[in-house]
Amino acid sequence: KNQVEQSPQSLIILEGKNCTLQCNYTVSPFSNLRWYKQDTGRGPVSLTIMTFSENTKSNGRYTATLDADTKQSSLHITASQLSDSASYICVVSDRGSTLGRLYFGRGTQLTVWP
Amino acid sequence: GAVVSQHPSRVICKSGTSVKIECRSLDFQATTMFWYRQFPKKSLMLMATSNEGSKATYEQGVEKDKFLINHASLTLSTLTVTSAHPEDSSFYICSARSGQTNTEAFFGQGTRLTVV
Q1: What is the pLDDT of residues B56-106, one digit of tens each?
Q2: What is the pLDDT of residues A32-56, one digit of tens each?
Q3: How far is the C-alpha of B8 from the C-alpha of B72, rounded, in Å?
Q4: Contact B8, B94 (CB under 8 A)
Q5: How far is A114 from chain B (nearest CA, A)?
Q6: Is A84 helix (H, G, I), strand (E, B) or coil?
Q7: How confident is residue B6, by pLDDT bands cut at 50, 70 and 90?
Q8: Measuring CA to CA, which residue among A91, A51, A111 is closest to residue B107?
Q9: B44 → chain A, closest CA residue
Q10: Interface of B with A in 17-56 (CB under 8 A)
Q11: First CA to last CA across chain B, in angstroms?
Q12: What stretch of H or E contains A94?
């Protein structure tokens, strides 16, 4: 069964600190993995997208890693800001169909305190 | 990134009425659009996939007569919740994708539907 599991479910950190969010998946075949940021009451916004051959990708203070062998990904946030408070969703796409179906994790709810 | 506009952002309707939600791709042609439903603190659940000019493909358990999807043009898809009931209250999100498989999918801002 194709699944995407994220941990932790929720996380609270102080402003300025770093944190790492985890994503494990069983989606096969694998096409790409994306991290999205979703603010409360808003649609998800893409942070990074990685294909099988990419190990790491950065977008400002966000750095995503991918280990396609162990089917794990992480999202590292450095020097957190209050505006980083949001749900971070890991999404994996398969290539088993022409539409490349997306599989969503439940998200990690990050809260940054001043 | 590309812009997907969803309207309205919030809507309150009476039980038994129908509500239409629009999803527009503003700067690209969306050959495929997806409609999701999201419950509080839960992940997005795919409801249906629509390709321009053809009937939508609904996920198992989603009533096609209740959630009418129209994708009449390459820039517009609509979701109509017919005869809405309080249990239909939820956050609905669309996403749009262009051209080839596995290209980036961009999400709308979401619509908070409350049925009273």
Answers
A1: 999 999 999 999 999 888 899 999 999 999 999 999 999 988 765 556 778
A2: 899 999 998 899 999 998 988 899 9
A3: 19
A4: no
A5: 23
A6: helix
A7: very high
A8: A91
A9: A104
A10: 32, 34, 41-44, 46, 49
A11: 36
A12: strand A86-94
